[in-house]
Amino acid sequence: LDDYMRRLEEAEKNAQIAEAKIAERDQRIMEVERLLNCMAQEKGDLIKKLCECEQRLRGLDQIDHADRAVAK
Description:
The protein is an all-alpha fold. It is 97% helix and 0% strand. The chain has one helix at residues 2-71. The longest helix is centred in the middle third of the chain and has 70 residues, at 2-71. The protein is rod-shaped. Residues 1-28 form a coiled coil. InterPro entries: Tuftelin_GRINL1A/MYZAP/CCD68. Keywords: Coiled coil.
């Protein structure tokens, strides 16, 4: 009976350790997912800004070409 109780306590202890490791891993996964979501948002913002800058450059290039044509 003592051996059975000792093995039961050992199994409970191992189960608690495993549960703690799973909880820690889940927490790390949630943090990685949060960071990935932030990175995706930042990527979207940067792409939008890049498109706006490229459009502005095209507009400035058109103005530059028009100014050169007038200067000739």
